[in-house]
Design goal:
The chain is of the alpha/beta class. A seven-stranded mixed beta sheet has the order 3-2-1-4-6-5-7, sandwiched between helices. Strand 1, helix 1 and strand 2 form a beta-alpha-beta unit. The N and C termini lie far apart (39 Å).
Length: 234
């Protein structure tokens, strides 16, 4: 299947992004989809090396680091296809798992074909103990408050329609709460088990402080947003 776009937001991922692109090409072969990389103001040597993959991908760059959410938004706006897949550039999401999300989409009931969000749910997570525990706590709090039907919102692997995504009023860090916002817009949430693997290179951009506490603040904002959305929908 070619008619979808893979969006890869990156920030200082030059140690992994080139191998990831090669792997995507290997997985899809002749059915290679559109691949869009959004370089979010990287300060490593990605710009100097990007000619290695320019003939295989579309590359857009932010002059400054605007955050993963903005990089995703840029890539989705630039996509030429309606069906969108998001994957991280650090290599922890195996590209072959994209096919599971596509298979789920193909088998959707016609009632959901135009209003859905398919989320990866990682099994055998390769994060360190502290990160797994903080993520588990955050997931439990999020599900209790937002009731978003998502088992693993922090998994980057997601599949949705461009029109549904762009129909949401953009806000910073919305990528962390896509299931809740999509559900508030009348979309059905689906979870697909996917493998996880260790980072092959580089360091995570997130830690307990910049993920957990900021996430709690954003959680309150999103709760207010979807509460307002529900009231407007009545």
């Amino acid at each position: 299947m070619k008619n979808f776009s893979i969006i890869i937001p990156i920030f200082n991922e030059s140690e992994s992004i080139f191998e990831l692109i090669d792997e995507i090409i290997l997985v899809f072969g002749k059915n290679l989809p559109e691949i869009i990389i959004v370089d979010d103001g990287s300060t490593d040597n990605f710009i100097k090396k990007k000619d290695k993959i320019e003939n295989k991908t579309l590359i857009f760059s932010h002059k400054n680091n605007l955050g993963k959410c903005k990089a995703m938004y840029t890539g989705i706006q630039k996509a030429n296809n309606e069906l969108i897949c998001i994957i991280d550039g650090d290599g922890q999401n195996p590209p072959y798992e994209i096919k599971k999300l596509l298979e789920c989409w193909k088998n959707l009931d016609l009632n959901y074909k135009k209003k859905f969000l398919i989320c990866g749910h990682r099994i055998n997570r390769q994060d360190n103990f502290k990160k797994r525990i903080s993520s588990k706590i955050a997931n439990s709090i999020r599900r209790f408050i937002l009731n978003d039907d998502c088992n693993d919102t922090a998994c980057a692997l997601k599949l949705f329609l461009k029109s549904n995504y762009l129909g949401i009023n953009y806000f910073r860090n919305m990528h962390r709460f896509l299931p809740a916002v999509f559900k508030a817009k009348g979309c059905k949430i689906f979870n697909v088990l996917v493998n996880d693997r260790p980072r092959s290179a580089g360091k995570s951009k997130y830690n307990f402080n910049n993920r957990f506490w900021i996430g709690i603040i954003d959680l309150i904002k999103v709760w207010k947003l979807i509460t307002k959305e529900k009231k407007n929908g009545k």
